[in-house]
Amino acid sequence: MSLIPDDVIEQVREAADIVGIIGEHVELKRTGSDFRAPCPFHGGTHRNFAVIPRKGMFYCFVCHAGGDVFTFFMKKLGMDYPTAVREVARRAGITIPERGPTGPDPREPLYGAVAAAADWFARQLRESPEAQVARDYLTTRHLDLETVQPLGLGYAPRSKAFLDAMKGLGVRDEVLLEAGLLARREDGTLAPRFRGRLLFPIHDVRARVVGFGGRILGEGEPKYLNSPDTPIFHKGKLLYNLHVAKHAMRKAERAILVEGYFDVLRLSLAGIEEVVAPLGTGLTPEQAQLVKHHAPHVILLYDSDEPGLRATFRAGDELLREGLRVSVATLPAGEDPDTLGQKKGVAGLEEILKDAVDVLERKIQILDRKGFFGTLPGRRRALDRLLPTIRAAKDPITRELYLSRAAEAAGVRKDVLEREAGMRDAASGMRPSPTAHPASPISHPALPASAEKAVVLLMLEGEPWKSRVAEAVDPEELEFPPYRAVFESVADDAVLALDDTSARAYELLKAEGLGGRDPNEMYERAVNWLEARRLERQMERLDDQLPFETPDRQASLLAEKRRVFDELRKRYPRYKIAKRRRGAPGT
Ligand SMILES: [Zn+2]
């Protein structure tokens, strides 16, 4: 076995004629947009075996064999993954570079363990009496078992049956631990990570299951629990449903970004296939890049309440930074894509998507409705809210259009606005606008605006700020390496020890200064924000621990979590709203 590059595998999959290939083994008959045949795996006589070309997958409704074109060869002819890819490539006329000196992928056992677990969880959902609670839950969401089976949904029972089942299949505990399917309790015993949950399998771009998102059924916390990061599962670098959606994204030349697993399901069942979701967190730069690989335009379809809008604009800026075109679709108040899809069907969803407006335009609409443009101070504040989006726009034409539009809306001269957008760019290391001073020949790190930056700027103001900040903030709290380096060096009076990159950051920050901002206010806000983030992390750690503990210990952890939560809510009410948003996908 050898490692074939992902993009080559992608190219092969795109080129593969799944209907033609499977059609060599069974007699396929068209039914609508899919094809049906007697199943070649369990040898039935009825046409229970479906090939779904628009998803690039097959599924048997009787024996539940399913997968993509590569999986077909693996299951039918017993090939390993690279051999299956080479075989499909040969038929599609694609040359794959010859096997290099690499050995087998050391992560292979993890893929195997997660795949075995996914099959077992899916069988529990279909057959286990205990899973009635999950089947009933799906019914309340107007989803029947038949519909969700090909998507691989599963159920994780409350008992330890998972441990025995995996033992029976010969999957070792250490592998299950590394794959994030088991956790070790404080007393050293092992417990399944997922218990009493409806499971959504999460695939990588090669359509291999690499982890799960689990929704609790009944009482319990947290509502959604994901696999932890493992060598094959990276929460911030995967998008739910991308392995299926990417084909449709190419064709439709757009991606629809939603917040939760159920939103994805609803749109995809309505026949809108180009839909993906982040895994219960805000959109990361890596995820924005993933989208960009498959489509030039993104429509954000989030809830329309305050937290939903904040999440929308955060994701919007992230996507603009990748040079994508970004629109915002607006749902009626109180609806999410899932509920709207249930009520109005595909026509209702398409209508909403059709009315999507550009992300900057949407911001202007909202500010306008709140009366921001009516007064002079209001216009100033409106511009402060528009500037991040203008600065985020990496595409030069988009940025030009944004500058004109924002200048018009706020009634300021475009060149003034352009200078303001450009000035901070230069200071923060982003691409300067044509009117800003020429970029320095020395490469320097990007210095994003953040609470971390604010505390460093205050340190650089000298006393009394230096002492106050050093007292309140632990350098460990700073995540961005240049800020942390500058912070530590100033605190230790060791600026000359900085490396080139950090020294450049130091110079830029020193030159930027406070820019007329009130240091008291900056201090207050930044320190509060860092403190709130620390509390949030503490809650996340408790969440991670919770599912594996005994009921007694769970009760005390929950009490601890409530205490932290109350403190967070009391002291930092605004931070809490953003946090709740990110913690509750698809509710
Ligand atoms: Zn079958």
Indicate the percent of residues in helices: 40-55%
Count up the helices.
Answer: 25
Cofactors and ligands present?
Answer: zinc ion
Mean pLDDT: 86
Structural class: alpha+beta
What would you call the quaternary organization? single chain
Beta-strand residue fraction? 5-15%
- What Rg, in angstroms, do the CA atoms define? 26 Å
The CA-CA distance between the termini, in Å, is 42 Å
Shape: globular
- Low-pLDDT segments: 426-445, 579-587
Explain the overall architecture:
The chain contains 25 helices and 16 strands. It is globular, with a radius of gyration of 26 Å. By secondary structure, the chain is an alpha+beta fold. Helix 23 runs antiparallel to helix 24. The two termini are 42 Å apart. 37% of the residues are buried. A five-stranded antiparallel β-sheet has the order 1-2-3-4-5. It has a five-stranded mixed β-sheet with strand order 13-12-14-15-16. Mean pLDDT is 86; it is low at 426-445 and 579-587. It binds zinc ion.
Summarize the structure.
This protein is an alpha+beta fold and 587 residues long.
List the defining traits of the structure above:
five-stranded mixed β-sheet; five-stranded antiparallel β-sheet; binds zinc ion; 52% helix; 16 strands; alpha+beta; 10% strand
Secondary-structure topology with pairs:
Elements (H helix, E strand, L loop, with lengths): L5 H10 L2 H6 L5 E3 L2 E4 L11 E4 L4 E4 L5 E3 H9 L3 H12 L15 H20 L4 H9 L4 H4 L5 E3 L4 H8 L4 H6 L3 E3 L5 E3 L4 E7 L5 E8 L7 E3 L15 H11 L2 E3 L3 H9 L5 E2 L8 H10 L2 E4 L5 H16 L3 E4 L8 H18 L2 E2 H11 L6 H17 L3 H15 L3 H15 L22 H10 L4 H8 L8 H11 L8 H13 L6 H27 L5 H21 L1 H11 L4
Parallel strand pairs: 12-13, 12-14, 14-15
Antiparallel strand pairs: 1-2, 2-3, 3-4, 4-5, 6-9, 7-8, 9-10, 10-11, 15-16
Helix pairs in contact: 1-4, 3-4, 11-14, 12-13, 13-16, 13-25, 15-16, 16-17, 16-18, 19-20, 19-21, 19-23, 21-22, 23-24, 24-25
The structure holds zinc ion (ZN).
